[in-house]
Design brief:
By secondary structure, the chain is α+β, with helices and mostly antiparallel strands. The protein has a single domain, classed as Alpha-Beta Plaits (2-Layer Sandwich), CATH 3.30.70. Helix content is 24%, strand content 39%. It contains two helices and four strands, in the order βαββαβ. It has a four-stranded antiparallel sheet with strand order 2-3-1-4, covered by helices on one side. The two termini are 17 Å apart.
């Protein structure tokens, strides 16, 4: 499953690295942070509310991106 978060307040590479620490949350397999688009895409089984809380605890504003939760389909 993939969840995309809107993350506000990132202004530098250090900010991206801080948000990339989401990979330490239980159930997270990978994290891709895009400061330009104010987003973080997280793959794994972690609940979106847990991810939002982790980002907010790091000092940023976060929300689940509208329509940002996708379920991976099995290969065809």
């Amino acid at each position: 499953m993939s969840v995309t978060l809107t993350v506000e307040g990132m202004s530098c590479d250090g900010c991206e690295q801080t948000v990339e620490a989401l990979r330490d949350v239980d159930g997270v397999e990978s994290v891709a942070v895009d400061r330009t688009n104010n987003s973080a895409t997280v793959d794994g089984e972690a609940e979106p509310r847990v991810l939002v809380t982790a980002v907010e605890d790091a000092g940023y504003t976060a929300n689940e991106h509208p329509g940002g939760r996708y379920v991976d389909l099995p290969p065809a």
